[in-house]
Amino acid sequence: MSGSAERGVTAARRVTATCAWSLALLGCAGAPASEAPRAVARAGASVSPAAAPAPTPGPGEVPAALLPENRGPFFPSLTQVAGTIAGADLADTTACASCHTEIAAQWQASAHAFASFNNPIYRASIERFRTARGNETSRFCGGCHDPSLLVDGALDVAVAARDPRAHSGVTCRTCHQAEHATFDGNGSYRLAATLLTGPDPESPASVAAHKVAARPATLATAQLCGSCHRAFLSEATGQPHYLQGTDDNGPWLHSVYAGSAVMRVDDEVSEQTCSSCHMPSERATRPDPAADAVGMVRSHRFLGGHTWLAAIRGDEDTTARVQAFLRGVVSVDVAAATILPLGTGAAGEGLGEHAPADAAPLRAGQRVVFDVVVRNESVGHHFPGGTRDAQDTLVELQLLGNSGELLAAPSEPHRLGSAMLDEHGVPQWAREIEDLRAVGYDHTIAPRDARVVRFAVDVPEDMTDWPVKAVARVLHRSRTEALREVTCAEGRSREGKAFAAITAKWTGEHIDACAPQPVTELARAEVWLGAGAPVSTDSQRDARRLYVRGLGLLHEVQEQVGRAGGSFERALALVDAGDPRLRAAIVSGQAAVAGQQGRAEAAAALADEAAALLPGHPAPAWLKGQAYSAVWRWEQAIAPLRSAAEAAPKDPLAHAALALALGSAGRASEALATAQRGLKSGARRNYDLLRLQALALTDLGGADVQAAMTAQLDHRPNDEAPNWRAACQEASPACARERVPVHTHALVWR
Fold first, then answer.
1. Which residues have C-beta within 8 Å of that of residue 544, sequence separation ≥ 6?
2. Which class for 599: exposed (0-12), middle (13-18), buried (19 or more C-beta within 10 A)?
3. What per-residue confidence (pLDDT) applies to 316?
4. Which residues, other chains included, contact 1 with Cβ-Cβ below 8 Å and sequence gap of 6+?
5. Full-model pTM
6. Which of 217, 285, 373, 579 has the most other CB atoms within 10 Å of its CB?
7. How confident is the model over 583-642, as pLDDT tens digits?
8. 379 closest CA partner among 473, 298, 446
9. Counting beta carbons within 10 angstroms of the beta carbon of residue 430, is it exposed (0 to 12), middle (13 to 18) or buried (19 or more)?
10. What span, in angstroms and rounded, lies between the C-alpha atoms of 114 and 312?
11. What are phi and psi of 340, to 5 degrees?
């Protein structure tokens, strides 16, 4: 259905979208009926002069709506060219490589160099998409994967294996000739029309001019990376509605790495950009004029999680580098063991929760449930990131006897990744882009956040091999088994063999699309339980472990969030009084629990306590504002949320929270300004901000209310998504289990 037709037959949705400000983020149907009248009464009640809304501007003074860009010469890609550039020129890397030998060699081993049809993982997905949606629609992929094909219109027809443009990927000129970029995604950058060329090495002036031309201001921005590391589907790609896909920008903007410390009190963490993580300085082993005085260059390997792509290329060096890059980015801990009675065994002693799990008095004939906690330690976006539904990082727990014998292992390990559903609620595991309709669940971990995974096992009554060692591991594979299978099949096809033959001829690399996936151990933790197990004596370390477990438990269903409070309480009893930062973090965790439980005054008091421990940190203010917003006390929420937003100027979610409170308190002009700050910061397609903008413009009588309303309707989550998730849950016990944020996997006794 076209966008105009859908809007024509769903006018009722506009009523929903323009309901009370109080419901702007919650959704009209999601608000408690008993609260609605009270919230409306507050919004319309008289207020003190200090809290009075700003004067309503006249029609000519209302700012214009900020709207997403939805057109361009290569739509549905958002890529633009300031003039005309030939794909062959964009694909050419030899001109650069003749001087920059080190950088060229690094790039040749990178995922950027194998981003196009020469990558069998990508080719399997895009060719299926092109068959289903038509060649022209695959421009959606081209801005990021195939710019050399895109600018020539070559994606509109069949792509031949002998076409050099189909082997070029993301080249030197793609980045170094970008004169503008945004966080919008789908290749939202603009290439300069003037072709970047090499200098006359004998002319200092020519060399100086080349350095300036090769380093446009856009090159140093996160927007350039973000223009491709965010993607979305829409009616233009054959979907019936907007669907956010890859998004590494949003989590980064809402994290301490982008300067937003509102989410939690944390360790002192330095700000990081895309390039500071993925392009660290590396010693040049070849002559390169880009090397500094001590021989260092910015790495152009763009290391990430592409272990399998390196293995497909037979590149053992890059595989090892990627594995080294990944190790330690997450941590794992066996943070708690809950002992329960089982059968007729000795079940009367040691029952209940033991946190930390070390030396839990487990005995034969009992059942034990482990809380394994995984924390994203140093990834500036979700882990795993990128195409989350294709990721296959696993969390497992094994039990070993004192003799070293394996006693129990998971029947199915937990997968850190997401599930995307089709229109029947069936998970799509092989990047079937054309069939994606909604997120079924997402177990990836936000920056510096944590997740709890439970494992349970029944200990036989004849168990004698004590103590027992519980070993938790996080194992990384870069792609799902389903995607590996379709990629292997593509590699064995006629076209697959043709592309592999050309790659071998032109680069000397032998592509094996059926190569085994490397498995990388990212983190490991061990604890002993039962008779003879050593007891932990490091109370400060245990306090931190309990705090991190509490962060993970904050993701439990609402009815169980009190468990997080218990973990924070134990942590507080252990923390060293000389560590005010950790103490403030734990107290902030308690404030988060109180806020989620609707205990606004308790949350505010705890937030004030945390603020006193760590003056100036914005997280306590954020927690206080969120707690008041949760119970519709908008006027009290405004000041702390404003403080948090001012401390996190690039964080769209901080602006959205403040705009909601301002609008719900009747301050439409301030709400509009705040929502638009959020839209400008990098979230032009954020549904909540678009809705808040539309509501404010409606209240203020803006000239383009209709355009703003259309934009937010176009980005509204699909009404059918709950039905698709319910269908998945009904059809699959695994889906039903995975839809619970903190759920239990069975260990099988060997």
1. 571, 582
2. middle
3. 97
4. 9, 235, 240
5. 0.91
6. 373
7. 999 999 999 999 999 999 999 999 999 999 999 999 999 999 999 999 999 999 999 999
8. 446
9. buried
10. 11
11. -125, 155
Secondary structure (3-state) at 72: coil
Which contiguous run of DSSP H or E holds residue 440? Answer: strand 438-442
Tokens (6 digits) for 72: 């361009």
Q: Name the pairing type of β-strands 450-458 and 744-749.
A: parallel
Which residue type occupies 365? G
Q: Which residue has the tokens 């003749």?
A: 98
Q: How many percent of the chain have pLDDT more than 70?
A: 91
Query: Is the distance from CB of 352 to CB of 338 less than 8 angstroms?
Result: yes
Kindly report the three-state secondary structure assignment for every residue of 107-135.
HHCCCCCCCCCCCHHHHHHHHHHHHHHCC
Residue (of 373, 374, 372, 380) closest to 399 by Cα position = 372
Query: Among candidates 413, 399, 403, which has minimal Cα distance to 528?
Result: 399
Nearest 5 degrees, angle CA 626-CA 630-CA 632?
110
What one-letter code names the amino acid at 247? D
- Beta pairing class for 178-181 and 393-400: unpaired
What are the tens digits of pLDDT across the range 381-428? 999 999 999 999 999 999 999 999 999 999 999 999 999 999 999 999
Query: What whole-number distance in Å separates Cα of residue 56 and Cα of residue 31?
Result: 28
Nearest CA to 478 among 425, 415, 427, 532?
415
Rounded to the nearest 5 percent, the helix, strand and coil shares of the chain are: 45, 15, 40
Q: Tell whether the model's pLDDT for residue 719 goes beyond 70.
A: yes
User: CA 674, CA 662: separation in Å to the nearest integer?
Assistant: 9
Band of residue 72 on the pLDDT scale cut at 50, 70, 90:
confident
In angstroms, the CA 110 to CA 172 distance is: 12
Closest to 375 (Cα-Cα) out of 395, 357, 389, 359? 395
What 3-state DSSP class applies to 598? coil
H-only helix segments in 424-493: 481-492
- The pLDDT of residue 59 is 53
Structure-token pair, residue 234: 């829409």
- Residues in contact with 66: Cβ distance below 8 Å, sequence separation at least 6, in sequence order: 676, 679, 680, 684, 693
CA distance 312 to 514: 7
Distance, in Å, from the CA atom of 457 to the CA atom of 745, rounded to the nearest integer, reads: 9
Q: How far is CA 213 from CA 176, 193, 209, 210, in A?
A: 8, 12, 6, 5
